[in-house]
Amino acid sequence: VVLFFASSIVTMAVPPSSTNVDQIVKDIFSKEFKTSGSMNMDTNRVTGTQENQYKWPQHGLTFTEKWTTENTVGAGVCVEDKITKGLKLSFDTMFSPNTGKKRNILKTAYEREYLNAGLDVDLDFAGPTLHGAAVDGYICWLGGCQMTYDSAKSKMTQGNISLGYKTENTQIHTNIEDGKGFFGSIYQKVNDKLETAMNMAWRHDSDTTSFGIAAKYQLYSSASISAKVNNSSLLGLGYTQSLRPGIKLTLSALLDGKNINAGGHKLGLGLEMET
């Protein structure tokens, strides 16, 4: 893993992780359309997940349990800021009784003023797979890399390089993935009510290009609407309403503009509860 270090005059707070560098753009495109359950109208198949967390703050411990309608169960434990400040260690396990398939992941993350680095180990019986990443911040600039090494195949299977620029109201992010594709995104907070975003991608191995635009508008303190459209004529619409503290309702739709009169459109209903 290549780590990008800056000098001691860095003023940026802890940078985001490599998977969250453009998270605010992902939220505008995706978060308003995400639910914890779904139903396929063509097959009448319903899927969903249930996750619970139990925290023991005086010891820095968090226990997690997860269940899905695909009959997959999972559990995890996380300890934070106990060995040293900024270090987070966690272990997650997933098990499917139907197939007997198991997955165990050991995760480490380290955060400090100008560095956010992590190393995850997927404990596969054929040989562990290592996922490493690091993001460094200097003033308003972000630079980082991400890699995956498959010990069973004795080769690197993924290598990404990212560069970003972040201010209070603007974010720009670019990423080169495995030397085969270029990805970029722009976020702009126009005012206290309106946020906009754009993303684009080009892959030279398949010579394909894609792009999309999205916006989120805060109607009032407890409700917002959002919309997105891409070059494949997919139109997404969403409405989010906070019913009361800790309870949020989301309605969403994804329409295929090329086949308005045909099937394939998606509707979503999400209810998010926090206690």
Task: Write up this protein.
There is one protein chain. The protein has a single domain, classed as Porin, CATH 2.40.160. The longest helix has 8 residues, at 23-30. It is globular. It has one helix at 23-30; strands at residues 37-40, 45-56, 61-68, 72-80, 87-96, 101-112, 115-122, 129-138, 141-150, 155-166, 170-177, 181-189, 194-203, 208-220, 223-230, 234-244, 247-256, 266-273. The protein has an 18-stranded antiparallel β-sheet, covered by helices on one side. By secondary structure, it is an all-beta fold. It has 1 helix and 18 strands. Helices cover 3% and strands 63% of the residues. It comes from Gouania willdenowi. This is Non-selective voltage-gated ion channel VDAC2.
Number of helices: 1
Biggest beta sheet summary: 18 strands, antiparallel
Number of domains as seen in the coordinates? 1
Structural class computed from helices and strand pairing? mainly beta
Radius of gyration: 21 Å
The percent range for helix content is under 10%
Task: Give the CATH topology.
Answer: Porin
Could you give the count of β-strands?
Answer: 18
Order of helices and strands: HEEEEEEEEEEEEEEEEEE
Outline type: globular
**Kindly state the mean pLDDT as a whole number?**
84
CATH class: Mainly Beta
CATH architecture designation: Beta Barrel
CATH homologous group name: Porin
Distance between the termini: 38 Å
What percentage of the residues does DSSP assign to strands (E)?
over 45%
List the uncertain runs: 1-11
Signal peptide: 1-19
Protein name: Non-selective voltage-gated ion channel VDAC2
Subcellular location: Mitochondrion outer membrane
GO molecular function, one term: voltage-gated monoatomic anion channel activity
